Amino acid sequence: MVYPTPLTAVSRKLTDNIVITSSPFTRANHFNFGGRMALIKYDDSIIVWSALPYGPEVLKALQLLESNDKQETFNVTHLIVPDREHTLAAVSFKEKFPALKIIAMDTVKFDKFKVDYEVGESLGNQLLTKEVLADKVGIKESVILNNLQFVYLPFHANQELIVYDINHKILFEADLIFNLGIPGTTSGKVTLEQYSPATGYIKGFNPHGGWSFLTRYMQPYSKVGKFLFNKFVNPAKSAAGLKAIYGLDFQSIVLCHGNIIDKNAKEVFKHVFESSL
Length: 277
What we know:
The protein has 277 residues and is an alpha/beta fold. The protein has a single domain, classed as Metallo-beta-lactamase, Chain A, CATH 3.60.15.10. It has helices spanning 56-66, 90-96, 130-137, 142-145, 223-233, 235-246, 265-273, and strands spanning 10-15, 18-23, 26-27, 31-32, 35-42, 45-49, 76-80, 101-105, 117-119, 127-128, 148-153, 160-165, 170-173, 252-255. The strands form three sheets. Strands 1-2-5-6-7-8-9 form a seven-stranded mixed sheet, with helices on one face. A five-stranded mixed sheet has the order 10-11-12-13-14. The chain is globular and about 45 Å long. The relative contact order is 0.15.
């Protein structure tokens, strides 16, 4: 798994208090999946979802969030690990912001520090509301409790911790669905934000060339993609969790791999996991 060095990325505001940062990311040194981080600000606190390696591009994203390109200090209070495969950059944030608290599944372990708030299998496949997060996970900070909800899918291959922003009706997910093509079509031909001129690639770059030709099928309306997403999630054991997610009033999906889904998001989700819903 490889981030480019130095990291290249493009950041933009999704809402007044949410910035997303998109970067190239290669799996197994061959497959162009792309990566994405979100910075969410509430109550003067910044929550990091799916961290990218801390450095100049992350600094730019933080400055964009604060609308101040000169700012150098930030109140980063929490970091959410979206699944056990998305841990590479968490250490860099913890080193930069030692006081931040990490929210992750209980299977995630770090050598130099502990996860502050662990979500275990007993809390899987259900909506983790304010009350559950406080009573069962131990989260006390209102910035989390008043703005975010979670659904943990412990039987997903990568153990997904889905995040829902209550105020903006946005679903955040890492490996539940990829969108390396165009929702509503069977074609993989699309300009991916993570492999665009904004991240240093030539106009018209084909991210599905060479070894990466298989990634064109990693999108919701590909039969191959739909099959794989269901295989990864283990629908027989995750049906209740998928129903809990579908029951949320989300209007868009911010995902790690591929373009965000900002149109017909619930229909896309239903199409992929219809056998469980």
